[in-house]
Write a structure and sequence with these properties.
By secondary structure, the chain is mainly alpha-helical. The protein has 7 helices and no strands. α1 runs antiparallel to α2 and α2 packs across α3. The N and C termini lie far apart (70 Å).
Length: 155
């Protein structure tokens, strides 16, 4: 089992099947006895499906579907700037506050990005005056650090 929480639940059932009581199982796994009681009860009533995590409703999003779509389009259009730089979470907070009159913290921006299907991967920024030709020319300069490119010493 790859899910760690499910693995602990299965280990608890394994302890109980091997003869340990709920208190001993809880002590061995460093969890509360009440949790073990709940898992055993759910297992007897629903089988292995009773041990799986149920979806949690959580707090509803402050933005509606149309606003989320508009935000997604804004992120898509502004994530890569032609003059260099990148979109910052603080910029998104300001945009949401200005456009939708809804307050978000920077921490919730990352969660919102994940919900919209984006991942917050930062790349190296590109300076507006950066030149590929100058970089290639710089790479060709002999600096003496290459062991395959010996530098002659002059007396």
């Amino acid at each position: 089992e790859t899910n760690g929480r499910m693995r602990v639940r299965l280990m608890a059932l394994s302890h109980i099947k091997s003869g340990a009581n709920n208190t001993q199982t809880a002590r061995n796994l460093h969890i509360s006895r009440r949790i073990v009681n709940d898992w055993v009860k759910r297992f007897y009533e629903q089988g292995l499906d009773g041990l799986k995590e149920k979806p949690r409703s959580g707090r509803p999003c402050n933005l509606n579907e149309q606003q989320l779509s508009q935000l997604s389009q804004y992120i898509h259009d502004n994530s890569i700037k032609p003059k260099g730089g990148r979109l910052k979470a603080q910029t998104l907070v300001a945009y949401i506050t200005q456009e939708f009159k809804v307050d978000y913290s920077v921490d919730n921006i990352y969660r919102l990005l994940h919900q919209l299907g984006f991942s917050w991967i930062t790349s190296r920024s590109r300076h507006p005056k950066q030149s590929d030709e100058v970089q290639e020319a710089f790479k060709k300069i002999r600096n003496g650090n290459d062991p395959y490119d010996p530098v002659e010493c002059q007396p």
